[in-house]
Write a structure and sequence with these properties.
3 copies of one chain form a homotrimer. Helices cover about 80% and strands about 0% of the residues of chain A. With about 130 residues, chain A is mostly helical. Chains in contact: A-B, A-C, B-C. The interface between A and B is medium-sized, with 29 and 25 residues.
Chain lengths: ~130, ~130, ~130
């Protein structure tokens, strides 16, 4: 089924979100920031921001990617999700090290987000029927 | 295709979420709140809360809207999403200015959320078949 | 329609997310933490973390649950969502009282999340067709 590829990539994207949450839990222990606090050692705060950024971008990316997959091309949508994920992983690995190192991954994922959004818009507009 | 209208509105909702995130980035520069900090100048904190509120409401709204679109009426679902977005934009513009000015937009989007949720529930219950 | 059961459970999950947001608003008044602040009395911070945790987990759970429902078994997916919700409610009720009491509900919802994710993966892999 053509939609199975974007579904598979969605499962990987969701797994990555859960992993960044797991890393926040680990940083809570390592840097002694017991819940419910969300501030403390900068390394903890970076881990926390990685997860939040992952979350807010995924909520924007997944709907756009699925609209592209459904109304446009599911294989290209799955490919876009793969590239997006590469950017997200690079973003997280960089940010976990140092705030400045999040830039490259961020650029990759944001450019993929923009391309996916435009591709979704074009795909949908072909189907719009106001009559 | 009837689902293309809610898809189009979803793309606009997602774009608005990304715009509120962009405004947080801008406020980081303007009010000198380098990442990963999330506290500082109240104007930065308001920009941050606008984005977070956008995010948490969209995660609740989009599933309800799509369930209404799929099981009920996709044109009314798209209309609900348009009204919801008007409320969200008014909420953000007000909140960026002053915390109190977020009220009107909040009320519009929350009433639309409630109506959409009930419409989705009624639409789904007609299709439930436990047999 | 088989997908109506996961849709119904999704509406309940979304309602629960909105309720945890409502509890944050109530805690803002009770513990005098006016917006946009997100820190203050530990009871407010716990209410805030309940909502954020609800949000970040729902963004991971709903896509996995829907992929399982669409490519696998919608009735089992709805059941997984019901068990997940029981865990989330127990998590919130515990956390609202005391940070340590969030554990049991967390374990239930996370185990359900893991099972649902694997079930979704297995369901999708059967449909993958790279040819």
């Amino acid at each position: 089924m053509p939609l199975s590829l974007p579904a598979l990539m969605t499962l990987l994207a969701v797994l990555w979100l859960l992993f960044t949450a797991f890393m926040v839990g680990r940083a809570r222990g390592k840097y002694k920031v017991p819940a419910p606090a969300t501030t403390g050692d900068p390394a903890f705060e970076r881990a926390f921001r990685v997860q939040m950024n992952e979350l807010e971008n995924l909520v924007a990316f997944l709907p756009a990617m699925w609209i592209f997959a459904w109304f446009g091309n599911p294989r290209f949508a799955a490919l876009a999700c793969a590239v997006y994920l590469v950017g997200r992983v690079a973003f997280a690995i960089g940010y976990w090290r140092e705030a400045r190192q999040r830039r490259h991954g961020y650029t990759i994922s944001m450019m993929t987000m923009a391309i996916t959004w435009v591709a979704a818009l074009v795909s949908v507009l072909r189907w719009i029927d106001f009559a």
